[in-house]
Structures are given as C-alpha cells and as structure tokens.
Design goal:
By secondary structure, the chain is of the alpha+beta class. It contains 16 helices and 22 strands.
C-alpha cells in the first residue's frame, strides 16, 4: 500500500483567511500566542510567547482568538476534496489528512502527474501544504513534517525507493514521534535526537525501559502491526466557507468565491450521487453581524453556470451592510439523482427540455416571488373541472386538494384519454348557461352540435352529477365543449378548444 499525508502547517491562520494578511497578526489561546503570520514573525513574534510579551515587542500587533471549530471544518473540506482521489481517507487532527494512493496511481498512471494535481489544487485554494508519502500511515504522517517531495521517495510507477525511504525515516527527529512527553524528554536526555539512533536499540530493551507504547509505535511505523484509522465519510449536509482578509465590498467581487463554493458543492453531490434542493447562504460582515438568505431549487441536474446566474439574480435584491469577511454555503435538503434513458430522437418532453423548464421556474420564482408561481397537477376525479389541482412550482406534491363545488379556472391539464376523445384547452368556471329554443342552442350566437354524446356520471357519494357532453361549433367558427345536465335538463358551455 502507498499512503500520502497532506499536512496544513498554517491551518489556524488559513482557516480564518488571515495567512496572507499584510498586517501583523497573531492567534491566541489562553493568553498565549498560538501562531503568527509572516509579518508578525519578522517582528519577532513566535508561538508560545505570552500576549503581554508579544504586545511589548509590537504594539501594532492584531490579536484574534483561535477558532478550532473552523479549523476542523476546513480540514473536513480538504478530506472531502481528497475523497475524489481515494475511497480510503482518514482525518489526522489537528492539521493533516491521510489517503491511500494505490487506486489513484492506477488511474493517473504517473506519480509526478498526481503530485502536480495536489500542489496546483492547494495553490488554487491559497493553502500551504506539506506532503509525506510512505508504505504505512504513521510513516507518511511523520514524513509530512519534513515535506520531502514524493517523487524522491516513490518512482513514477508508484514503487517505493527503499533506500531513500530508509534514510528519510532515520533522519526524523524523535520529538515528532507520537509518544508521551515524559518519554520524549528521556530520549532527548539520552542523546537520541533522531529516529535512526532509536531503531539501533533492541526492541525488547526499549519496551522494558519505556513500556509497550514505543514498541507498538515502531511496529506500526514499519508495517509490522496494522495501523487502523477511522475512515472519513462525506457528511450528510454540505457546509463550506470562503474567508476574505479585509472583506469584500461589492457584489461583483462575490462572484468568484460563489463560483468556487458551487464547484465544491458539485463535487460533493457527485460523491453522494444526489441533488440539492436548497442553498442557504450567509454573509459574515467585518463588524460581526450576519445576514442569511436562501434559494429553493427545482433543477433535475447540477448546472453550475445556471446556478451562478440564479445566485447573482438573488443578490440583486440584497444590499450589502458592509464589507463581507466570510461567505458560507450550507445545503441540507437532498434527493437522489434521477435515472433516465434518453430517446434516440429528441422530443419536447426530453430531459433537456425539462431541465430548461426547471431553470425558468427558478428564475420566475426569484423575480415574482414563491407565492406567485404555480403549476397544474393531475388527480383522479370524475368531473373535468376537478381532475387537476394547483400546486407550488417547486414541490412534487399538490399544495391543496380542491373541494367539491370549488373548481379552479384556467387551462386544463387533461388526464390521459383512451381512444381519440378530445378535450378542450380552456374550461369555463362556472359553466355558462346556454339558451335552448325551438330553433336550436344559443350562446352569444348559434351552436351546432357536431359530435356526442359522451356520458359523465359520478359524484354519487356526494351530489350526483350526470352529464352528456358534445362538441359544438359556434357560428363564428370556434369549437366548443357543451353538456346537457341530465338531472335538470339544462344546457351549459364548459370550454373551448384551441
């Protein structure tokens, strides 16, 4: 097996977006300096220094509390990104990720090519990374502190260079070993500053002197004992952030980070084979205030370009309250990917057409408001005016069922009809009265029956309705749908054909 460790030495600063800050900045915890950026280090600020000492050296030093929760969220996002290269990914808190590269090398066929992909990806994210590669997880984890190029330890075909790996492990400082502080201090006092000097001693003697922990550590280091790590699995919800030192002041500046967050979301959805139904955005302003806004989606496939247009469209109705320090995206509602088979010849009901329809609905909802966008949905009913229902444009189930006596008006989405029976495109609500005389039927002109009757008989469990429907031609040429109520013997106009 071949393990790669990705270590982020500046994660506390990078998680806050402050690593490349031009001003002097340091992170604190319990009045102790945890980490300082480059400008602060040049002024003499170092980790472990008290806040009072640091401020005496540099009165212009900016202090921020360390945010370990944000660090772990950033580390989880790195693990999620690494999941595209390997199904065996492990978190190594506080600042490292492990992944097994055997399958990746078979896919990319070249170690140097894979190495370039890792480096370019971290540069694109603005993150500093140190790599360690070895035959065991622990060896890779320890070698990542030395940041030795993987191409020096592994051939292009993925074969470990045994001599180079042996020399690299021997040169490791013993202070990096995962042992308790007392054991590490004793090793330093004995003059064992490198792992090579420790490995020359008999294992039995080391175990008697320091206990079983050191023997188990050495056995895991060389692969003599299994080093089982808890595997990382993609979370049930998506959560990603972008931080901006000094803040972003315009909506146009937000377009690039929005695109980057949607790219991460696309990768997450591909891993889980699902689609998101919502996007919950949040602005974190420099003054500490927050502004949350959301988008509901009806897309059938993930299209980053169309989603960027939707988000920008939504931003038009917002006013920034100040410089945006952090932009976060969270998705909690998901559905499985639809499995479909495309037809040989494209039709109006193709998946592409349905996707375009969903995109138009999303835009209309943003423009007009969610409460003003509806669709017609079919339901089982015996009477024409009751066989459809109005539903929200972004839900798959009807929002309400019409009660008897409350038919809706508008275009009728007819149920599938057997044979060649015709149905009108427009229904009248309520049906219009037709005058019957000895000369025929009249409704704003003479009506001539062309086809019928077709009997509708239903609603016997409430109030029975028995109708005979006919297709008629108006004297102006329009085709009409008329019926005779068999109970009260009166005629009505119920709709028009297109």
């Amino acid at each position: 097996m071949l393990w790669l460790c990705l270590r982020l030495p500046a994660l506390p600063l990078e998680a806050l977006g402050a690593h490349h800050s031009t001003g002097m900045l340091a992170l604190t915890r319990n009045n102790i300096i945890v980490m300082a950026n480059t400008s602060a280090q040049q002024a003499g600020i170092a980790s472990g220094m008290s806040v009072a000492s640091a401020m005496s050296l540099c009165s212009a030093l900016e202090l921020r509390p360390r945010d370990q929760q944000r660090e772990q969220q950033c580390l989880a996002n790195i693990a999620l990104w690494a999941y595209r290269f390997s199904g065996d990914v492990c978190l190594c808190p506080p600042n490292a990720v492990l992944l097994e590269l055997g399958a990746s090398l078979r896919l990319f066929k070249n170690m140097a090519r894979l190495y370039r992909k890792f480096i370019s990806a971290f540069r694109h994210r603005g993150l500093s990374v140190q790599l360690g590669i070895a035959h065991t997880p622990l060896a890779a984890e320890l070698l990542s502190h030395q940041n030795i190029s993987p191409t020096k330890l592994v051939s292009s075909a993925g074969q470990i260079r045994q001599e180079a790996l042996h020399n690299a492990l021997h040169a490791l400082p013993t202070e990096l070993l995962p042992l308790d502080a007392k054991t590490l201090n004793t090793l330093q006092e004995m003059g064992m500053h490198q792992l090579g000097s420790l490995q020359t001693l008999p294992r039995a003697a080391l175990e008697r002197r320091f206990g079983k922990a050191i023997a188990i550590m050495l056995a895991k280091l060389h692969g003599e004992l299994p080093d089982i790590r808890p595997q990382f699995t993609p979370p049930e919800t998506f959560n990603a952030q972008r931080h901006f030192d000094g803040g972003l002041h315009s909506k146009q500046q937000l377009r690039f980070p929005i695109s980057a967050l949607l790219s991460e979301l696309e990768h997450y959805l591909r891993l889980r084979q699902c689609l998101n139904r919502d996007m919950q955005w949040e602005f974190h302003y420099l003054d500490g205030s927050r502004e949350a806004w959301s988008l509901a989606l009806s897309q059938r496939h993930f299209d980053r370009r169309s989603l960027i247009e939707l988000v920008v469209l939504r931003l038009e109705s917002l006013s920034l309250q100040g410089p945006v320090e952090t932009l976060s995206l969270r998705c909690e509602q998901f559905i499985g990917n639809e499995q479909h088979s495309d037809q040989l010849f494209d039709t109006a009901n193709s998946s592409k057409q349905q996707e375009k329809t969903s995109q138009v609905l999303d835009k209309l909802r943003l423009r007009l408001g969610a409460q003003r966008c509806h669709l017609f949905s079919l339901q089982d009913a015996h009477l024409p005016e009751l066989n459809w229902v109005l539903r929200d444009a972004h839900t798959s189930t009807p929002t309400r069922s019409p009660r008897h006596g409350q038919p809706a008006t508008g275009k009728q989405a007819s149920l599938p009809i057997s044979g060649k029976l015709l149905r009108p495109n427009w229904l009248c609500h309520p049906p219009e009265n037709i005058s019957e005389t000895s000369q025929g039927l009249f409704w704003q002109g003479e009506l001539q029956l062309l086809q019928g009757p077709e009997r509708f008989d239903g609603q016997w469990w409430q109030q029975r309705q028995t109708r005979d429907y006919y297709i008629a031609r108006h004297q102006h040429g329009a085709l009409c749908w008329v019926f005779k109520d068999c109970l009260n013997r009166r005629w009505y106009l119920h709709g028009f054909f297109g």
